[in-house]
């Protein structure tokens, strides 16, 4: 071969014929050396087949002397051998190794590391098709040592191999750790033990190391000629892959090809004379894997041609490489990254285990961790329960396999490595190693539950003591499916998803059910009924249309009037800037005027609110509806937290004591609300005093005593009372008719006594700081001045409009002018908040501050601006443009984090790690106000953490890495820090052992996209940010043109005031007309760029996501405030939503706008969606948008702040109580009532 420059390509006789044929064809083989039996068995079709057994005689006649050097035609750059390794395409790829690489390796490894001597006896056990055989054969020959060739059977049998090695006096053994683990018998003759090919467990080193034996752990890909690094192993040292061989270069680089410092994880790269030429016939793959760094990136890296291994590693303090697994081979299960070798290492330390391997197998469409064991002697000696308990004590729950499978031996590849793809399907899931030892059902209830579990989980013979999550592989979605299936049996209609979390075994669930049936709730009943409904009378439509006309007048006045005043003054010859100044004064006067008008309208329209039950869409309802909409329009949120709000509510009829703090609260039935002195009602609390249920408007009183506390995002039902010094904490719901006794603290939805709660504000902070007259004046000025910020932001765009469209009359520039005006508005608005924040507050430090103080006033004003940013430029949120702005405000936010419409942010105290996701309407670290003091504390959220829609993260919270806080939930409380890799749901939070995870997408689609996707997304999100403002700009322009036409049409009137009276009577109608046109424009965009929404999963970095977010942004910024808002609570709202794709029946009551994927929602006749309820047709866990359908059958009802997740069915007459969460995949049976987070059956 050397004489004729032939290339060696080695084939394993055990390869299937198809693989041999492929390699021979791909490698362009012309001649093959084999034996007759193999040639016939494999049907080798190469032209020149030399069967060495048939030609043994001729071969024997050849000279045994080595060739003279002048007869060798081979050069060092010629190919020495080709080895085919596994390929990602399903076909192997040929690695081309040159002579210089192989001879260099044999020389340096033998002289510097192995030091094989002529008297050594070296075992040859690797397949010749694996490059480790190069080491065995040629290092032995180079040293003049003896090669001891073993059989395939011996290599696969640990016991037989040990005996063979001892008999043959083998001194050098090279093998994979799996084979060594199967050798229970000591081989005293071995002086050099070389391990490689897979990660080495620590216990093997402890077992095989002794003073007379060297043990080496080696590492190296075929592409870098056999072995690249090595470590001298000792029992008291952590196993690494060591350092590079002489003439080899090994680097650990980050994604930008920069050197990683010690301790920092990166990818392992190898360079030097060892590198392969490339891959046979694959220049594309060669260019991908063998990279050439340019000079700018390789100043500290020599040589600049490197092999990209795809392995992770880091340098330790000793200058050795810690191997961290494959980049593309790490197992990701239910969102967790798992190193299988760690599990295998734990199992190998258990008694009776000879070898172990862990793999992921799909069973009943569920990915599960399966452990395969080879016993040392027999199955009887394995304590499977003990092995399981060891794993549970040493490993996190998500790393504990769901089955232990016993094998006589592990399947292996020709390289000796374990062939994970050939591992058999599991047979013993949930059976073999349960602590119960497989106890079966003992009664009919257990049998029924076990049958459903088996059917859904795809597991037979489930033990009644097997844990649904820890042992059977269940997760959150499967829990909902199992419970929904069980509910089809009337015996199990009361079961809730929460039950399976609290009672995760068949036995515990059956016991809990039996106990519940023996001790039923006093109000429990088995009867079902059809819920009453309501139908709108045609006469009510007249009042609705009149009410909408007045509402449009109130809504449009602050938008249109200031700019109309400017036009009038400017046309009359006023100086441009003087006209702008007067327009600003008009704007500042409008807001107080609207507040006074709303007070007058309340007393004129309603008088005093009275407790009672009134027909939906009846006469009283229409008056109530009108006043409720008026209160929403007058922007009381910009008075929140100030004494001005107290004054306003007192004028409406609320009975307020002294020193009451009112945050940004919801309050409607004013005359029925009583709040005692020194009480604090925090941001987001709901004291509306009404509900819509069973076709009725129910109104009731709410009484809160003195020195009470109501937490953020907390709701008080009708006829509720907080007695003096009582408390109800964040994200809680106090149901109708309930009282909290004096001095007690309640929490949760539904709220219950919480004996562990104590005040977060020290009692020494009393007495309550009062608000002096000077501060009251400051609040008055601040509440007016806050409106200057949007006015100033609009001036450049408005002046551009005047210049281009009115003075130069270049109408074709309307759209560019609108886009520029919108862009300047957003930019100037953000810049103003940034400047005012740093000028007025600087960097905020944690601590307790008086609410009514100079700092409190300044903090209040900046908080109002942050709240206004969500109203004025909502489409900035959820985009890549938001994060830089929040960082400039002081927030510490890691790379690739996504933040949606988060509220109550104190930027200086907010810290979010990299690659986290904050969903819509999440409250992030709101200041807690109690007895006149506000507490500001850090809020820390780790990396790769998901916070669900409507969640509340209190100040002081620390959310661990890779964790999940569910929708409408709070973090766990207590002295024990939250652990990483955990999921929590509810208020108070409960631990979710396993959840459904979508991890089938590449990181380039979820966490680490290529740069070109950033460019596309930024372009689409630029439209998302600027298009709503552009549309508003065009509406204002066309509206002014329309009003001018109206004024001109009435110019014959002698009295100017009459002309402008006509204009103002027309402009609500005109504004309605133009906003309607804008609405239909957005509807058209929805159907053209998104089309019809369908169920499925879509990764974050996909253009569909940005297109649908564009439509959602336009819906929320154009359709909702300009059109849909005025229709809420009327029979007209469903008409509009049908145009967007929702399927809605007759007589449906809708008082929410929280819809996104409209086509996935089906609402049947007489359904009620109460105030701010949510039909959540998607979630963004794991950076994947999961979309699913929702179906509400006739007369189903969702209470205020109720949230229904996707893939859910509410049967007819189902009632979901306020602040409740229906889990995805649930199906709630007819005529039942549910409440809580997540929901449980209610009989109230």
Structural summary, described in words:
This protein has 1244 residues and is of the alpha/beta class. The N and C termini lie far apart (90 Å). The protein folds into seven domains: 74 residues, no CATH class; 252 residues, Rossmann fold (3-Layer(aba) Sandwich); 76 residues, GMP Synthetase, Chain A, domain 3, CATH 3.30.300.30; 70 residues, ACP-like (Non-ribosomal Peptide Synthetase Peptidyl Carrier Protein, Chain A); 185 residues, UDP N-Acetylglucosamine Acyltransferase, domain 1, CATH 2.160.10; 220 residues, Hexapeptide repeat proteins (UDP N-Acetylglucosamine Acyltransferase, domain 1, 3 Solenoid), CATH 2.160.10; 224 residues, UDP N-Acetylglucosamine Acyltransferase, domain 1 (3 Solenoid). The strands form 20 sheets. Strands 26-29-34-37-40-41 form a six-stranded mixed sheet. Strands 44-46-51-54-55-56 form a six-stranded mixed sheet, with no helix packed on it. About 1% of the residues have low confidence. The protein has 30 helices and 73 strands. One of its GO terms (cellular component) is carboxysome. It comes from Chamaesiphon minutus (strain ATCC 27169 / PCC 6605). This is Amino acid adenylation enzyme/thioester reductase family protein.
